[in-house]
Design a protein that fits this description.
The chain is of the alpha+beta class. The chain has five helices and eight strands. It has an eight-stranded mixed beta sheet, with helices on both faces. Strand 1 and strand 2 form a beta hairpin.
Length: 203
């Protein structure tokens, strides 16, 4: 799909994910679950469970992988914002970068690819649900993700107090929003990622 900028030590390639990526991506995700409050999940999913989640997402939404020297170092995907049809033009986004690879522009490259795919689908609103500290940063959670999304053009639309409990501590959660399309009275339906990917490749 795309490649990273020259600021990176090596060229990063962004490509569509497949279920075959599940073991590598589950490995990237696991430390976030075990060692941080970035995700409120308690137990890392198995490769099989991760593959099932990917399968569900890929049925309609984009799921992209960042590769560095042929090895996955991050991933991003979109998912249903709410189950009602009136919310079809809104998605929730998720981005994870492997430990040791932060600050290289990988997260930005993943998000840019995701945003382009969502725009092609006809999605209008991108939302990020982000865990944040209640008060000062701690060793498991900071406001870095909130600041990252601000740099991507998201705005803060709400903060929920003391709504997540993990590792013996209570945390807050913020919702952030980015508009990426025109809202019309005659809004065309959102197309599946499979459809727009096929269109782009001429298949």
């Amino acid at each position: 799909m795309t490649q990273g900028g020259s600021a990176m030590e090596h060229m990063v390639t962004i490509r569509p994910a497949t279920e075959a990526d599940a073991p590598a991506l589950a490995e990237i995700y696991a430390p976030y679950v075990r060692d941080t409050a970035i995700t409120f999940e308690y137990e890392p999913p198995t490769s099989e469970e991760f593959a099932a989640r990917m399968r569900s997402t890929l049925a309609f939404y984009p799921y992209v992988v960042a590769e560095l020297d042929g090895r996955p170092v991050g991933y991003a995907y979109a998912s249903t914002f709410k189950g009602r049809p009136a919310y079809d033009w809104a998605v929730e986004t998720s981005i994870y970068v492997a430990r040791g690879h932060a600050g290289r522009g990988i997260g930005r490259a993943l998000h840019d690819a995701l945003e382009r795919a969502l725009t092609a689908q006809g999605v209008l609103n991108m939302y990020a649900c982000i865990a944040v500290p209640h008060g000062e940063d701690d060793e498991t959670l900071t406001r870095n993700s909130q600041q990252f999304h601000e740099h991507l053009g998201y705005r803060l639309v709400g903060e929920f107090e003391l709504c997540g409990y993990k590792g013996g501590r209570w945390y807050n959660m913020v919702w952030m929003e980015k508009m990426i399309g025109e809202h019309r009275a005659d809004q065309p339906p959102v197309r599946s990622f499979l459809e727009i990917a096929a269109s782009a490749t001429g298949r």
